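# step 3/5: fold
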Amino acid sequence: MKGKIAVVPGDGIGPEICRSAVDVLDAVNKRFVHEITTFEGKAGGEAFEKSGKHLPEETIDICEKADAILFGAVGGPVDAQEEPKWKDAEKHVILGLRKKFDLFANLRPLRVWPGTESFSALKPELVKDMDVLIVRELVSGIYFGRHERVDTQTAEDVSRYSKDEIERVLRVAFDAAASRRKKLTVVDKANVLETSRLWREVANAVKKDFPAVEMEFMFVDNAAMQLVRNPAQFDVIVTENMFGDILSDLGGAIVGSLGLLPSASLNARKFGLYEPSHGSAPDIAGKGIANPTAQILSLALLLRYTYNLHKEADAIEAAILAAWNAGEKTKDLGGALSTDEFTACVVKKLAA
């Protein structure tokens, strides 16, 4: 098959790990005889230096002409966040792309692969066979509500949801659960928040279309505790924007590293932005030590959700697991391989 992917590496380690993903894509093209090509667009600090914008129009144009976006990371050093080059870079780029393409459903798999239980901060027996999917609503809620400094002593942030915004992401989550272990956990704070009560009303209505899926409600504070105490109890978790942001990062510690977590942000047409859950890590940029796993796994999600190429996605995941099982790991996982060396191992396993 033929396809077009917009690659937006961004800042920090973004260019390094995106190169890794493109190398893996080349191997997929060769093994499965596809013609999926890539086109690069600039975003973040480098783009700002050249065009005065963190997300230039030419990058948006490249993304509009593609089937999907493979994104790296944006952002600069913590102590330079107020410099024009970095100020609000993530907001302009990430939130801008989410709104531009209406990427309302964020899928974050939390998976502990066989033989990788030792990566987790929890006891191996607690995470064995853990395979949880968090579905996070991505373009509404408190992040996109009104933010106001009322006076010097008071600030206000508004969380807003409509029935339609809730229903569409719930249907994505129910569909996912129906194709997995048929259990959906709706996480909210309905004992306090009116938006959460609306979520429950909509969830109960949508549940009627998915009789085979077991649904439960859980308060977000309890969900955080349960993820640490017994993560394997979950199948699919669906929740609003801010809760999803927090729980999925907690999931990174459970799995072992944000460097292992891919994500997919989809719209109704299955157009998606695929990115690792970690940031730009400017402190290690250019050192060749970044773990490209999350970026490569994000490519696998792209092949699965945008192109429906499930065999190809499975092959990428199997190649990564084969590399780990052979002791071929990056330094953050206790190995000795550089970014490029680990990528080469994955490519070799994929070809074999």
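# step 4/5: annotate
Residues 73 and 280 are 5 Å apart (CA to CA).
# step 5/5: archive (pending)
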